[in-house]
Specification:
The protein has about 260 residues and is of the alpha/beta class. It has a single domain, classed as Metal-dependent hydrolases (TIM Barrel). The protein contains 9 helices and 8 strands. Helix 4 packs across helix 5 and helix 7 crosses helix 8. It is globular, with a radius of gyration of 17 Å.
């Protein structure tokens, strides 16, 4: 099984040997591969430190999260670009986590859009998929993507939208949809939306340490808990957990070229 979105390098895992214990628990739970998207310039070093401890199990994505975009993000973006084009660029399987988030703060919409545009264009040029964070900003996100000469492959991470949102995204490109613990929540509409997406475009993720699935809701999330999300996805599709694991693993390997 693949957790396509986890931040096990964050301070929330400091007491777990800087995330290493959480990785070991995930591997024991059958989560063989985990993708670690970057957040900002301060998270690059701890991400790389954890990555180096588990070759063949951990993979990195490099990008600037939309809520971390500054008033003048050119220096931030220069660092991201330098890493993605540098001598160690082969360690990155995607550009992310990038996108737009207007839930908390709308004052930097212009800067977020420009940072997203630059990083998405870079991904297309490098032939890498994108991991898209989109919160309360779907029209703006799709506008940026539609403006690109070439739309990169990728995934809408932590997707919680409607069938209409799925259709709007597909009019731009045939993206994957990252499904996490939200699908297990009592009031979630995702179980009804998933058949419209189709299992061939579903990726499993945790977004650890956030959004822990039931029965761990309210606690710190970790990659091992993805088994609960897989069970909820299986129920929505009328499939076995083993079938969901097989298809979503193949989807992740295909999108991110995992080895």
């Amino acid at each position: 099984m693949v957790d396509t979105h986890s931040h096990l390098y964050l301070p929330e895992f400091a007491d777990d040997d800087a995330g290493a214990d959480a990785v070991s628990r995930a591997i024991d739970a059958g989560v063989d591969k985990i993708i670690l998207p970057n957040v900002d310039l301060t998270t690059i070093a701890p991400l790389h430190a954890l990555l180096d401890r588990f070759p063949g199990h951990l993979y990195a994505a490099m990008g600037l999260h939309p809520t971390e975009v500054s008033d003048n993000p050119s220096a931030q973006l220069d660092t991201i670009e330098r890493l993605l084009e540098g001598p160690d660029s082969r360690q990155y399987v995607a550009v992310g986590e990038i996108g737009m988030d207007l839930y908390w703060d709308k004052s930097r919409e212009k800067e977020q859009a420009e940072a997203f545009r630059c990083q998405a264009a870079l991904a297309a040029r490098l032939g890498l998929p994108v991991i898209i964070h989109c919160r309360e900003a779907l029209p703006q996100t799709l506008e940026v993507l539609s403006s690109l000469p070439e739309v990169p492959r990728g995934v809408f991470h932590s997707f919680t939208g409607t069938e209409a949102d799925v259709d709007a995204i597909r009019r731009v490109s045939d993206f994957y949809f990252g499904i996490n613990g939200i699908v297990t929540f009592k009031k979630s509409t995702l179980p009804a939306t998933l058949p419209h997406i189709g299992i061939d475009r579903v990726l499993l993720e945790t977004d650890a340490p956030y959004l822990a699935p039931v029965p761990h809701r309210g606690k710190r999330n970790e990659s091992a808990y993805i088994v609960n999300t897989a069970a909820a996805v299986a129920a929505a599709f009328g499939m076995t957990v083993e079938e969901v694991e097989a298809v979503t693993t193949a989807n992740a390997i295909n999108l991110f070229s995992l080895k």
